[in-house]
Design brief:
Distance between the termini: 119 Å
Number of helices: 6
Largest sheet: 10 strands, mixed
Helix content: 10-25%
Number of strands: 27
Shape: elongated
Number of domains: 2
Length: 486
Amino acid sequence: MNYGCIPKTRGFQRKDDQPPGDRRGFISMIAVVISVAFSIMGLGMLFLSQIHLKASAARERSMILDYASENGIKRGLQELAEALDTADRLIEISDERLEEIRFEANAGGTGTLEDQLGWAFPRFVRETRGGISWESTMTGRMDRLEEHGDFCETDYLLQIESQGGLPAYRPKRVSQCDSILKVLAGRIPIPSIPLLINKKMSEDEEADFLKSNGIILRENPGDGLSTKLETGESPVIPEDALPLLARALKIELTGPEDLDNRILRSALGLEASDEPVPEGVYLIKDSLGLGGIFVQGDADEMIAAIDGDNQILRFRMGSGEWTLLFNPAQGTSTFMTPEGDSSFDEAPEGIILVNGKIGALGGGTVDSSGEINPLEDEAVPSLLAGVQLTIVASESITISTHLFSQGVRWREGIPYIKDPGSPLILYSTGKDFLDGSEREGRIAVDERSPATLTVQASLIAKDQGLILGGGGKIIELLGGVRAEKK
């Protein structure tokens, strides 16, 4: 049967006498309702789209304001880096000038820093690029002053406040960056200088020196400043190791002439005599505790290794072997010698004096049987985290294997350290400790060492400086070099 309306429509009954053309249904009402629903949905979507567009525009402006504000910070840091790169970082000053710097720092002044940077505080920077503007203000103040006897260390707090803006847009975005700039004045420690050559050179000569010696100065991530080669004719490298001798031997020394065989034998705990000290390794000790280590004669091999929480130092001279094991955290140490073993309830002074040469210096590992084996090609830390060692030799020092501490990180095959300080100082004096006679002073790299050698140390060498053995080697030095160039 054919109907003139939708069959599923309910509540409709056709009368028998109703003409066929007069039949009615609800299709028009449903169409109206559907049209109204879609209209409401369309208006809602349009409204939501407008809200989304406005929110997106607000987010975009907010991001642009962030970028503009950060640009002001970056521009201020760039000005600071450029000023430090062009300034002389190593300046010779008189004792009178040192006292003026100390007085100004104690008064909270920033004149020394302003003289070094070449401009006064506050420092303003205003720039506009592509309709975006930013401005930054750098201020400086003395934050901390620490005296170290022969030198003072001053921390200056530099604050950069930046404001970014957009044209015809009232809100501004403000950012702030705090940084510390350290200034050392006086007879500063040599390890605080990254690369120093005791010879006056022009910029072209410095570039030729770096290129001819294959030296590449890499930056540690986060430092923000470039490492520079420092040159000068001032006698920066000490003529002798007298302060380190006095500290390690636990005696008073006012001059090189104060140290002779009798005084040295007394400090080493030997029988009083004018006879030369027998060759060997001596741990300095007295009623007040332990001192450093004194080695009389050439050390054929010296190995540093880590065994749990213990730092191990092994010395070989001829057929004799000496091993020092100490735990800095527990304050205990054991000294093993050909004559017997001794244990102590304290750690020794971290100074090792070798009145002779060191034939092979490097890192090692401890196997399951307790045997100490030198490293070969593997890069394994051999210095315990937190241990500071200073090794002073009157003659040459030869580095044979990797030598670095715990905490070194590799990024794309390049080692980096979080702390820019070096846990190890190697110093070749080129002068005998007792009679002051000239010796061959240098720090060399063994030609049999790995092709890529990682050394974390500050190297100080008289006479010949740093010598690389063999060809095609890469030395990754995490530290610094101070040497004389004759």
